[in-house]
Amino acid sequence: xxxxxxxxxxxxxxxxxxxxxxxxxxPTYQNLLNLEPTLRRAIPVLICVFVxxxxxxxxxxxxxxxxxxxxxxHERLSLLAELVAHNLDPDDTQGDGGTPIxxxxxxxxxxxxxxxxxxxxxxxxxxxxxxxAAPAPNPHRGKKLIEVLGQSQPLTTFAEKAGxxxxxxxxxxxxxxxxxxxxxxxxxxxxxxxxxxxLAAWEDLxxxxxxxFSATGAVLLIFAVAFYWQAARATEADRIYDEAHKRLDAALxxxxxxxxxxxxxxxxxxxxxxxxxxxxxxxxxELMICPNVQALIHPDDADLYQLANALLRDxxxxxxxxxxxxxxxxHYVWLRARGQVIEDPGTAGPHLVGIAVDVSEQKQLxxxxxxxxxxxxxxxxxxxxxxxxxxxxNRLVLCNSKYQQFHNLPNDxxxxxxxxxxxxxxxKHPVVRTKVNVEGDGRVGARTFEAQLDDGRWLHINERxxxxxxxxxxxxxxxxxxxxxERMMEGERELxxxxxxxxxxxxxxxxxxxxxxxxxxxxALEKERAEAASQAKSEFLANISHELRxxxxxxxxxxxxxxxxxxxxxxxxxxxxxxxxxxxxGRYLLEVISDILDMSKIEAGRLALEFVDIDVESVIEEATxxxxxxxxxxxxxxxxxxxxxxxxxxxxxxxxxxxxNLLSNAIKFTPDxxxxxxxxxxxxxDIEFAIADTGxxxxxxxxxxxxxxxxxxxxxxxxxxxGSGLGLAISRSLVELHGGRLKIDSVEGRGTTVTFCxxxxxxxxxxxxxx
Length: 771
Fold this sequence. Notes:
By secondary structure, this protein is of the alpha+beta class. The protein has 21 helices and 24 strands. The protein has a six-stranded antiparallel beta sheet with strand order 8-7-6-11-10-9, sandwiched between helices. Strands 13-12-17-16-15-14 form a six-stranded antiparallel beta sheet. The protein has a five-stranded antiparallel beta sheet with strand order 2-1-5-4-3. The radius of gyration is 57 Å and the shape is flat.
């Protein structure tokens, strides 16, 4: 690798590495950018001028072709008229008023193709009446020639002297016509051609020319739109390109980092503007060379030549080094360079591309931290208390010699990073360790205790949690205080001996009090056992319900498959009936288990409510729609009486479940052709719901049992209806979880009304209270 590369003539277009590619095309590209506004204004003018020139050219050409077509038509008509007049034999006529020319004479003397292109040949006698015409038959035969040509036309008077003139045929069609006198001086030959037939070729040319002109205009319009679209895209791309580079430069400047690209074989280095800013140098558009860069690096730090040789020789792919570079003011700036070698065939050699981050502040902070740490260690070492600091992972951070002396720790046991268990295992354990309650100290993780060492000394140890999760411990020698306390304790024992007799006199009373305490403890123990049994029952029901639902789903699914005979016939209709019974029984058992699971969740306090704003009318509509099919089967009418615009903050699923349970019970215990009324209204700060039916009703003694789990009222009607007896209990529990209340009013034989109220604002009952 060359140690002195040349950079003559190498400039860069932008502040980033991709800008090097734009160096070669800068003049041409810049000229195009400067010329683009002029081109965008000139192109519409040029397109308009071109379209006008083409339009004038097409118009002149069509006009020329028009008069050419008219002249050719006139010439052909004149020649045809002369030829027909010449071919008719004058000997066949007999002077003035002789025999007129017949159709056979005209057909015999008519040239081939004379009546083509819509031409009409008429022969008139001395009286001006048409006696022959081509093509034949012709509707004009028998008419006068002036009726065909028009009363005001001079053609019949002047004949060939009038030439070819435009006429209007009796049907209003425009035509060209010419007349010739025969040699007898009385008969005339008229040749006519419709204007449309004479100009047919010109009209085709007109249509073709207009089509080509329109297509050319459309193509030019497409070209113009494409040009403007491409120009807009180019402008937007340039804007995005410039904005991206501005953001990149801003990010580099804000992050105090520089971008560089080192051409290893040639020794040329590209720096971004931010790199110059870090070193206080004026930004330049020239590539740096290795000697100049090496001159800025501190002599004790990196060597670019060795680094380049190592990269080229060993093939190292990445670089991560920290070094110093000299600032313009003379001081050194700490930089951390990270880069990666990129092998790009287009760059003719490997490039080391990366960034250099200014880490001077981090270095300064590290030095300040080291100084502060050293001062802290000196201060800790000079205090008279034993000091130790542990991190959040229970590893030793530091301790002083007092701590090591008090616990007789060897030097290898107080190395920073040693685990707490290892330090404690190496330390001598205290003879006595007593916790001291410090009043008014409510800090989390704080504790205070006293410990007696094996040499008789006492330590007062305070431990506190640090903000990072570790804890600090300070031990103070309180041996003198403990000895004074022992003397005070001895005096206290003597005082206690004097009141021993008084204690004996109170012993009987204390024994009675102890008996009462024992009874209270037994009562509390039995209560706890009962509550634990209830909790275990609820958890068992929840677990067993979950375990039963999986095989039940399989039973229901397989019974449906067998009932539908999806894989072939069962062989007997009785099997299909059994499959239907299995499916119905499985669904009923699944509903019972679902009710048990819901009830167990409520009793276990694991049912969480999600309060949202609810439109009461929409929830009632959903519930009645779900229950509608069952009501139709029983021919039970469900009526609704809902006050308008009722809003409620509650758990939507729980409210719907309460409504479905109560409606199901009402349908179940209402005879056929009965009626159920669901009403909702506002009652103060509550929403009151009422479900009234015309069913069998409930006796007053049985009302107290309703609402308890698995409780059902037995009578002749309910014996034919199965159920778990949990629907009403679940409904009552869900209403109470909302802070509401449920009431049942019933008259036996006349019907039942279930009313529950829910507060409009959420009032959740805690799970502990619900349990």
